[in-house]
Design goal:
402 residues, alpha+beta, Glucose Permease (Domain IIA), Helix Hairpins, ten-stranded antiparallel beta sheet, two-stranded antiparallel sheet, 4 helices, 12 strands, 63% helix
């Protein structure tokens, strides 16, 4: 092996890479952090929790909307009662207006009669006064001539005076009756004006209440539409929740089945110790454990086998498993690590071309890469390891004897 003056640093790099990369990957697998199914399950569980929280939030919104609808219906009932009261008030005003109008008509008729009586009495009184005036111009002559005795004359004079006073009293009474009727008409006019004002105010109030009722009906309609939308959203969320639950069940089943397969694979790998096919045809140029470098005479620790092979020779998986790592690994060039379950791994390094990707399921004997060269321009070879967790195992105990 031609490490030259860079051999110590290359060895350190190789040793660190081998002891660090594999345990980390193994630890991740053992801790289930790199398990795609587990990650998917966790992701779906998180989405399921979010959906359930959203469903709960939507349910709370529906409860709130129902409460608002109840309040609005109560308020709407109050408004309807107010409208009914306004209608009753308007009906009462109509009846009062009708009664006042009837009373006004009666008073107007009475006033007309009083005015006519007043005029008749006024004319009669005026006539009597004129006669008296004329008689006063010839005092007692007519009355004396018309009277048969002095006592009759006195009686006539007294009776005529009484008639004058009665006529004046009737005129006064008629005048007072007319004033009373006019006063009542003014009161009726005020009442009619108040009725008109009350009717206008009641109409405005009823219009306002009807507008409020229309607004409440519209608000209730909007609430019902919003609640309907929320219920549709809840239905979608419930369907998504059910779908995620099915997915989680499927993923859990897949994980269980994969664990069983891995256990079976691990059992099969353990059972095949000493019977595994070699990953590549070739001779071992460096074995497992401590070895002495032929040129530098330095003692190094090798955790696997270095198998000489022609450049581009096919490299096959020694057992079925899953690709845990397929990339460049410092000190090893292109490298593939297969997971065989229960912490068992095989490592293939110094590769030229790699035909698999991380996460792929690999069958026993499947070609996964081609032989390449290690750093330093050494001969083409494959570096092969078997590990259980962090512990390197001697590949000779697993591969068929030659």
């Amino acid at each position: 092996m031609r490490f030259g003056k860079h051999y110590p640093s290359l060895l350190v790099t190789t040793t660190i890479a081998l002891f660090v990369a594999l345990p980390i990957i193994a630890g991740q697998q053992d801790g289930e952090k790199s398990d795609p199914l587990l990650n998917k399950i966790r992701q779906n569980k998180s989405e399921l929790e979010i959906l359930r929280e959203e469903i709960s939030s939507q349910q709370e919104q529906i409860v709130s909307l129902d409460q608002q609808a109840v309040q609005m219906r109560r308020s709407s009932g109050d408004i309807l009662r107010d409208i009914e009261l306004s209608r009753e008030l308007l009906g009462g005003l109509d009846e009062r207006e009708r009664l006042l109008a009837t009373q006004s008509e009666e008073l107007t008729g009475d006033l007309d009669v009083s005015i006519r009586d007043f005029e008749v009495r006024r004319q009669a009184l005026a006539k009597s006064l004129r006669s008296m005036y004329l008689r006063q111009q010839s005092p007692g002559l007519d009355m004396i001539l018309m009277s048969s005795s002095f006592s009759e004359f006195t009686a006539r004079l007294k009776w005529e005076s009484i008639l004058v006073r009665l006529g004046a009293g009737m005129m006064q009474k008629t005048r007072q009756e007319g004033e009373r009727i006019r006063s009542e008409q003014r009161v009726l006019a005020v009442g009619m004006a108040e009725i008109a004002l009350g009717r206008e105010e009641a109409g405005l109030e009823r219009s306002r209440l009807e507008m409020l009722e229309a607004e409440q009906i519209e608000a209730l309609r909007n609430l019902e539409n919003e609640k309907k939308g929320i219920k549709n959203r809840m239905l979608d969320l419930s369907l998504n929740e059910q779908r995620l639950s099915y997915i989680l069940d499927d993923l859990g089943q897949q994980r269980t089945e994969r664990a069983a397969q891995q256990q079976a694979s691990a059992g099969a790998l353990t059972a095949q110790a000493g019977k595994l096919e070699w990953p590549v045809s070739g001779s071992v140029i460096r074995g497992f454990g401590r070895s002495v470098h032929p040129r530098f005479k330095t003692v190094t620790l090798n955790n696997g086998l270095n198998i000489a092979a022609s450049l581009g020779a096919p490299v096959a998986a020694v057992a079925e498993g899953k690709v845990e790592f397929a990339d460049d690994l410092p000190g090893f060039g292109q490298c593939v690590i297969l997971d065989h379950g229960q912490g068992y791994y095989t490592l293939y390094a110094y590769l030229d071309r790699v035909f698999v990707t991380s996460g792929s399921e690999i069958a026993r004997g499947q070609v996964i890469a081609e032989v390449g060269r290690p750093l330093g321009g050494e001969q083409p070879q494959l570096y092969f390891e078997v590990r259980h967790g962090r512990t390197p195992l001697d590949p000779a105990d697993w591969l068929q004897a030659r």
